[in-house]
Design a protein that fits this description.
By secondary structure, the protein is mainly beta. 10% of the residues lie in helices and 39% in strands. The chain is built from 3 helices and 18 strands. The strands form 3 sheets. Strands 11-10-9-8-12-7-6-13 form an 8-stranded mixed β-sheet, with no helix packed on it. Strand 14 and strand 15 form a beta hairpin. The longest helix is centred in the C-terminal third of the chain and has 8 residues. The protein is globular.
């Protein structure tokens, strides 16, 4: 795939696993910046190392450790997730291709998300928890190449991710915002409250239990990309 065909938001396969592109840096040697959908692990690659996939009705995949199936024929519910597959935002809304958004309010067939975006029913697929009968598993490009050990690790992934995020935060911890795929670093800790570089202030408990923040790394570790 040529670089001009890769754009932010696309689902792609890299190393046989489903990823989402969050940025393209044309001048970089590894120009395509992605996160692996199943656990939000970040990775960079060349454009010719990925292949495009367009999500559709009845596709099933893992999102941050949990299995979901995309449905276009069920009603959205408050507290659930949608995937914005055909974005057509109004001028007051801020979302783009293949964004994961949490539903705050349902208004007829449309929804208002936790980011206060109004998303029309024709723009999204509902993320139904679990793997529906007859669904198409898209977590891997070729599941025949996936070891039994890897499948067992996937089954434990949700629990492993919860354990990872139960660590007490430290200055320099970087978190991924699952609502907009942006990142923010812990810049201050006062008592039981942390301040992120975005200005967000959360208690330890709220940060670890929040649906939209996921720990990535600490800048002192030296292993970030």
């Amino acid at each position: 795939m040529k670089l001009l065909q890769v754009r932010k938001g696309q689902f792609v396969y890299y190393n046989n696993e489903l990823h989402k592109v969050y940025s393209v840096k044309p001048l970089a040697k590894k120009s395509v910046l992605m996160f692996r959908v199943k656990d939000m692990e970040q990775v960079a690659s060349r454009a010719d190392e990925v292949s495009l996939y367009k999500p559709k009705h009845m596709d099933s995949f893992m999102f941050f450790g949990e299995r979901y199936t995309l449905r276009e024929d069920v009603s959205a519910e408050e507290g659930g997730y949608i995937l914005i597959a055909k974005p057509d935002p109004d001028y007051m809304d801020h979302y783009s291709l293949n964004e994961f958004e949490k539903i705050e309010t349902v208004e007829g067939k449309n929804v208002i998300t936790s980011r206060q975006n109004t998303v029309k029913s024709r723009e999204f697929l509902v993320m139904v928890p679990g793997q529906e009968q007859g669904s198409n598993d898209i977590a891997y490009y070729d599941k025949g190449k996936v070891s039994e050990e890897q499948l067992q690790q996937d089954a434990q992934l949700a629990e492993d991710l919860r354990d990872r995020s139960s660590i007490r935060p430290s200055i320099g911890d970087v978190y991924l915002n699952l609502d907009n795929t942006g990142t923010a670093m812990v810049v201050a800790i006062m008592g039981e409250e942390v301040t992120l570089g975005t200005g967000d202030k959360l208690t330890f408990h709220d940060l670890h239990k929040a649906d939209n923040w996921s720990y990535l790394y600490n800048v002192a570790d030296g292993d970030f990309r």
